[in-house]
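This protein record is not my work; I was only asked to verify it. The record follows directly below this note.
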Amino acid sequence: MYEGPVQDLIDELGRLPGVGPKSAQRIAFHLLATESADIERLQNALQKVKEGVVFCDVCGNVSAETRCRICRDPKRDLSLVCVVEEPKDVQAIERTREFKGRYHVLGGALDPLSGIGPDQLRIRQLLNRIGTTTDGVDISEVIIATDPNTEGEATATYLVRMLRDFPGLTVTRLASGLPMGGDLEFADELTLGRALSGRRSM
């Protein structure tokens, strides 16, 4: 345990996902030894993230404008929507270069133990998108690309139940190739690409 501001910094860093007590301590002492100009750049970057980043009105992805670059892209297939949990998952799928449609970011996965139910996710917005014609094109396929873990599977099952009554809508799920219990952001491009091209109906 350290005194005052140093311990406060270690405690705050330790709250970040994936940062354990030792990593938090290492980062804190690195910051202590860093030049003031570098610290100022870090502060400015953090401030800009909080003030300058918005979420896309259409898909919920992080964006600098009201519509993200993917939703503004006229070459995208409007009839295909890939549903993911977080913005980081959009980037994981984009790296495969296999998907040419648009996305819908839920903002998490169903997790009743943590108090995350359907109302905490962007499920209602997804249903509204599917029921709306955009530029004369109806959504014909929804690809569910939630993480292959307990919460992701529960979310996928719930979405299938909600989407099955839409006439003419095909609902698919990412195919095998993704390890159970893993996260999309850690999957390599080949594995994720095969999972996308071999998706199956549910």
Q: What stands out?
A: The longest strand covers residues 77-84.
